[in-house]
UniProtKB/TrEMBL annotation:
InterPro entries per UniProt: AAA+_ATPase, ABC_SmlMolc_Importer, ABC_transporter-like_ATP-bd, ABC_transporter-like_CS, Mo/tungstate-bd_C_term_dom, P-loop_NTPase, PotA-like, PotA_ATP-bd
Protein name (Swiss-Prot/TrEMBL): Spermidine/putrescine import ATP-binding protein PotA
Species for this entry: Ligilactobacillus pabuli
Database matches in CDD domains: ABC_PotA_N (cd03300)
Family, as annotated: Belongs to the ABC transporter superfamily. Spermidine/putrescine importer (TC 3.A.1.11.1) family.
Keyword Transmembrane helix: no
EC code: 7.6.2.11
Quaternary structure annotation from Swiss-Prot or TrEMBL: The complex is composed of two ATP-binding proteins (PotA), two transmembrane proteins (PotB and PotC) and a solute-binding protein (PotD).
UniProt keyword Nucleotide-binding, yes or no: yes
PROSITE patterns xrefs: ABC_TRANSPORTER_1, ABC_TRANSPORTER_2
Coiled-coil region(s): none
Length: 362
């Protein structure tokens, strides 16, 4: 395997109050990929970024950059730049001066600074804004200036702490697209922080899902969406149909009082589990042919499909996405494929999950 660009080895971080914000954290970042740290407020995302950047020291453990320990290397000597959560531009400087600041400190010749700033402004789609005052820019434009200010230093790694949080929905989706393009064009490594799961799914090559200072699951957006390892991840990533179930034997699971064929295994016989069924994997049928019988409570038209809110006899809620219309108050059937049933053990860790899949596949 290629040597990772950044490695966190057994990193623990405690602030003054003796509580471990991060505990024994291990992960690797490969060069040239778009990574996202996804997790709720307070789970430790900014703390991780600050340690990568060199603004915070871990309490114990080592941080490696291209295989070399950089735990004690100060921030300004790392090939890493950060766009902070509050983007902290200099209000008394114009756009050009803000972007040029770092280069001036490094004593880059004026002509080169001008070329580099012009190029960075083009990349963030603000060409010609050099002389604008920061107070005369919109929130989205400021955010772009903050990005340009980081890119202009040509770092190997760009850290982005919720850089889109201040933007309205439309601008936010435009910027998501632009950032992704920018990362591909520059080919540098991005570590992006968000608590928005849709944003994480749309932008990343690799997602780390965090809870309470731990990585609960890591993988590509598709892996995580299709195979959430537990209730926390499934819920966080936006799954809506999660029900209690019993794994009778390999490839046979029982929920809502019925037995269903599935493709998972490696659990104990009759182990209590949970299953996820995605709204888009459920199909409407008549009551007789349905694998599940549900009563339609409400229906919303969402532009591309209907979102249908149903309940089964046991009171479980089932959200269905379908291009077919249904009638509130009526009983209907739902059907699905065995591979659409995602079985999750209660509180299984990522390592246990991987080990089980490996042993079950053999
Ligand atoms: N300087 C500090 N001193 C003490 N505790 C801190 C300090 N900075 C952060 N914390 C605590 O560490 C935990 C993680 O904080 P962190 O800022 O890393 O979270 P986050 O995931 O970035 O959250 P958010 O999404 O709200 O930005 C929180 O419980 C926070 O209260
Ligand atoms: Mg934060």
């Amino acid at each position: 395997m290629k040597e990772p660009l950044i490695s966190f080895k057994n990193i623990t971080k405690t602030y003054d109050n003796d509580v471990n914000v991060l505990e024994n954290l291990n992960f690797e970042i490969e060069e040239g990929k778009f990574y996202t740290l996804l997790g709720p407020s307070g789970c430790g995302k900014t703390t991780i970024l600050k340690m990568v950047a060199g603004f915070l020291q871990p309490t114990s453990g080592e941080i490696l950059f291209k295989g070399q320990k950089i735990t004690d290397v100060p921030a300004n000597q790392r090939e890493i730049n950060t766009v902070f959560q509050d983007y902290a531009l200099f209000p008394n400087m114009n756009v050009f001066e803000n972007i040029a600041f770092g280069l001036k400190i490094k004593k880059v010749p004026a002509k080169e600074i001008k070329q580099k700033v012009t190029k960075a402004l083009k990349l963030v789609q603000l060409p010609g804004f050099e002389k604008r005052g920061i107070s005369e820019m919109s929130g989205g434009q400021k955010q772009r200036v903050a990005l340009a200010r980081a890119i202009v230093n040509e770092p190997m790694v760009l850290l982005l702490d919720e850089p889109l949080s201040a933007l309205d929905h439309k601008l936010r989706s435009d910027m998501q697209y632009d950032l992704r393009e920018l990362q591909r064009n520059l080919g540098i490594t991005f570590i992006f922080v968000t608590h928005d799961q849709e944003e994480a799914l749309a932008m990343s090559d690799e997602i780390f899902i965090l809870n309470d200072g731990k990585i609960v699951q890591s993988g590509s957006p598709v892996d995580i969406y299709d195979e959430p390892i537990n209730h926390y991840v499934a819920d966080f990533i936006g799954a809506s149909n999660i029900v209690k179930a019993t794994m009778l034997e390999d490839e046979l699971v029982e929920f809502t009082g019925h037995q269903f064929e599935c493709v998972d295994g490696g659990m104990r016989p009759n182990e209590a589990v949970e299953v996820v069924l995605r709204p888009e994997d459920l199909e409407l049928t008549d009551v007789a042919t349905g694998k599940l019988q549900v009563k339609v409570e409400a229906q919303l038209f969402l532009g591309v499909h209907y979102e249908i809110d149903c309940f089964d006899q046991e009171g479980n809620e089932w959200i269905v996405h379908s291009t077919k219309k249904s009638v509130p108050g009526q009983w209907i059937g739902l059907t699905f494929m065995p591979e659409n049933i995602h079985v999750m053990r209660l509180n299984e860790s990522e390592a246990e999950f991987d080990a089980r899949l490996e042993s079950y596949d053999e």
